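Homework help board

Subject: predicted structure for assignment chain

Our instructor gave us this sequence and asked us to write out the predicted structure in token form, then describe one feature. I got the tokens but I'm not sure how to describe them. Can anyone check?
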Amino acid sequence: MKKILYHIFLLLCIAVFCISAYKLYGYYKSYKEAKDTYEKIKKDNVKKTNGDRTIDFDKLRAKNSDIVGWVYAKGTGIDYPIVQGKDNEEYLHMDYNKKKSSSGTIFLDHGCDKSFISDNNIIYGHHMKNGTMFAKLLKFREESFLKKHHVIILYTPKKTMHLKVISAYAVKAQDQMPITFANETQKKEYITKIRRMSEPSIKLDDKKIDRIYTFVTCSYERDDNRTYVHAVEE
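My token output:
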């Protein structure tokens, strides 16, 4: 009897191991496919000439008409196309080529102007456990990192914007973030609020801020946490 129980237990252990190994392989395969997809998109559409980067938006648009921009943050690995879907669910689990993907695509909030001229332009991306997509946004919460890498470059079909990070923090997911402010006072109050919430201390001059660019990803410090990185044009 003991021998039978031993063999049953052994078979169960083997079954659990096989199922776990299969799941791990599935995760690895999914991560690798997503990484390879975006590496190819970058290789085909980002050109570097004498240190300057240009994005071939015509070529990108031919593949996916939802393209609205490209985001690049030196020192983070963030170097991705930005799309805008019909809602904020469409690209959560669909890659740039419109194929199913756990990594999804970096996307602009569907309520924002696709030309990035809203008062608050909100851009979302997954925090993948292999460090891809917007996972490295969390680096901006480190003061030592931010001193060296405080610029995020946002490319659009019409212009290139160099954005300076003014606030970075993690809090419980915000159901509603303002896209439009009623007046200048309301905007200033919002800027004061997000700067107070910032984990690293960031100096900011007194020049007028026209627009805010907010980058959002999941955090895992607590349930339903998000990391928010706010930036403005330099």
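Reply (TA_rk): Your tokens look well-formed. For the description, you could write something like this. The helical segments are 2-45, 57-63, 143-148, 184-197. That's the kind of observation they're looking for.
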